[in-house]
Amino acid sequence: MGQSPSITILPLGKQLRQERRVPFRRRGFAKRGKKQRKQNTMNICALAGRLVRNAVVKGTEKKVLLFTLATKCGYDETEQKDRITNVPCVVFNPTAELEAVLVNDGKGTYIQPEGRVSTSSYEVNDERKFTTEVVVFNRSLTVLQK
């Protein structure tokens, strides 16, 4: 019959396990050093959806796998259909197995990546452009079905 879904269990990082409460002052948070501030920030994104098109690999030595994930983000009552959001995703140094699955017959594959939201900017013709994408953690992408 069909393939059973693969499940990936990830160990949680130290940042997720440690939850520190910072006492409030009248005007803002208590003062903290830079090291403490970085440890308390959490930028983790868990998504589930289907690939819009086959993934693209760029580079030879340092490979980058680029794909777009279509996720449901609610229901539109007026049009009587689901709202879909296309989320651009990036995987740095993907495994050969993952690369083969997503590049060759990836379109429509249901996957669950986990990563962090990253924003960047660049200039084209003296105009500043901004991009937002999800940088997928290595070994945290689960391919469920076609």
Walkthrough of the structure:
This protein has 146 residues and is mostly beta strands. The chain has a domain at 46-145: Nucleic acid-binding proteins (OB fold (Dihydrolipoamide Acetyltransferase, E2P)), CATH 2.40.50.140. 14% of the residues lie in helices and 42% in strands. The protein contains three helices and nine strands. A hairpin with a 5-residue loop joins β3 and β4. The longest helix is centred in the C-terminal third of the chain and has 10 residues, at 96-105. The protein is globular and about 50 Å long. Mean pLDDT is 77; it is low at 4-29.
List descriptors:
146 residues; mainly beta; OB fold (Dihydrolipoamide Acetyltransferase, E2P); 9-stranded mixed β-sheet; globular
In short:
The chain is mainly beta and 146 residues long.
The major beta sheet can be summarized as:
9 strands, mixed
Which structural class is indicated by helix and strand composition?
A: mainly beta
Tell me the CATH topology of the domain at 46-145.
OB fold (Dihydrolipoamide Acetyltransferase, E2P)
Determine and state the CATH class of the domain at 46-145: Mainly Beta
Give average pLDDT, whole number.
77
Please count the helical segments. Answer: 3
Helix content: 10-25%
Rg measurement, Å = 19 Å
From the spread of the alpha carbons, the general shape counts as globular
Contiguous low-pLDDT stretches (5 residues minimum) are: 4-29
Strand % is 35-45%
Distance between the termini: 14 Å
Write the H/E string, N to C.
HHEEEEEHEEEE
